[in-house]
Amino acid sequence: MHWPLNSSATDSMENSNKKTGLYIHIPFCVKKCNYCAFLSFPADESPRAEYTDALINEIRMRSAGQEKIRLDTVYIGGGTPSVLDVSQLSRIIKAVRQYYDVAPEAEITLEANPGTLGKKDVVTRTKLIAYRSMGINRLSMGVQSMDNDRLHFMGRIHTPGDVARDMRLAREMGFDNINLDLIFSVPGENTEDALDDARRIIGLGPEHISCYSLQMEEGTPFYEMAERGDITEVPDEEDRETYHRICDLLKEAGYGHYEISNFALTGKRSQHNSLYWNMDDYIGCGLGASGFVYGTRYRNTADMKEYIDHYSILFDDEKCEDGGSTPYEEVHRNSPFDNISEAVFTGLRRAEGISFEDALRAYGIGYPGMDASEKFWMIFSDAETEARSYAENGFLIIDDTGLRLTEKGIDISNGIMSLFV
């Protein structure tokens, strides 16, 4: 059995009106950044080739024994997927198209960091043309800063000039949907520094900007430096001021603030990330990749040897049986309460919040004769008093249709969301 739950489940992707996405994890990078706690690491050509073969086998396995699953989005993330050879990436996408029904209008995103697309224009153009020919129609680049000293301090391998060049070449090659990431509250950086980064990123004209506060994650060089007292984390008060001023700047530039950390021009919201926040289905393939299918959450093993050993087996296309269990690191079958709790938690990240109807739809159990608001607060009776207190103090908006955070509430969003967990 290749899914953590049998495909005969009533909440199957084939019979659901939900959208479905595919996330593919490429764990390789040129150099581990000083703040990065993601599952990523440098690797030479041999492990990349072995991993590509294993990944294609997993993609094939997860499609076995059922009608072709229709995909509305495909997201290739990492790590830095653009470190793969074009031929390897082409094989991966070819496998996706072979074993899944990729919608003609599907959003297909590739994370392609500056500095990995080629140092010469001709090389970069060739790579970008190849991406376009594969059907990749959205790029997401981890810019993080437009200041050379800060980039060096964070351990990034590119320069501001690389960013500008890659943006120009991507436009020339026909990419009209590009996200740029920005990190603020870097130790030693003040609010004006962060605003300057934001202005310079806006000046590049991306359709989408993701904006994150730097977190000192355990196991990273920055965390160890902070523990030794070599660097100091930006105070919360300054971090929040910087965040709100960046939000104002982006909104003034025409970017809609549609999720806590995400801003987009009209019609350019991330369709794939929206699947997560909308409680839609997504399949995760690759080392440590997570998925949510048939009402079950799973996470693949993060052990490279275990992953390669398991998926290096040549599977039969018809049966696709491996004679053993898929190497999951974690599997959890959601209860109705898990579903509604997660729907509220993720829904509150969005500007429009979560409607009572959508929350109850995730719960899947009705209360005849009661309106949606009554049903919702019956389920979350223990949270209602505190939630309404947040509303009275201007952190949360609760009306007859649902609830959403105010701009002020974003700063304490974790505390508010935890009421519904």
Under CATH at level 1, the class of the largest domain stands as Alpha Beta
By helix and strand content, what is the structural category?
alpha/beta
Mean pLDDT: 92
Query: Which percent bin holds the helix content?
Result: 25-40%
How many strands?
A: 15
What kind of oligomer do you see?
single chain
Cα-atom radius of gyration: 22 Å
- CATH architecture label name of the largest domain: Alpha-Beta Horseshoe
Strand order of the largest sheet: 7-8-6-5-4-3-2-1-9
Beta-strand residue fraction: 15-25%
Task: Tell me the overall shape.
Answer: globular
CATH topology-level fold name of the largest domain: pyruvate-formate lyase- activating enzyme
Q: Give the N-to-C terminal Cα separation.
A: 31 Å
Largest sheet: 9 strands, mixed
* Domain tally: 2
Count the helices. How many? Answer: 16
Tell me the name of the CATH homologous superfamily of the largest domain: tm_1862 like domain
Structural notes for this entry:
With 421 residues, this protein is α/β, with parallel strands linked by helices. It has two domains: 20-277, pyruvate-formate lyase- activating enzyme, CATH 3.80.30; 353-420, no CATH class. The chain has helices at residues 45-61, 86-99, 121-134, 148-154, 160-172, 191-203, 221-228, 236-252, 271-277, 304-311, 336-347, 356-363, 372-379, 381-392, 407-410, 413-417, and strands at 20-26, 70-78, 101-111, 138-144, 178-184, 208-213, 256-259, 262-264, 281-285, 290-293, 296-300, 328-333, 354-355, 396-398, 402-405. It has a nine-stranded mixed sheet, with helices on both faces. A three-stranded antiparallel sheet has the order 10-11-12, with no helix packed on it. The protein starts with 19 loop residues before the first strand and ends with a helix.
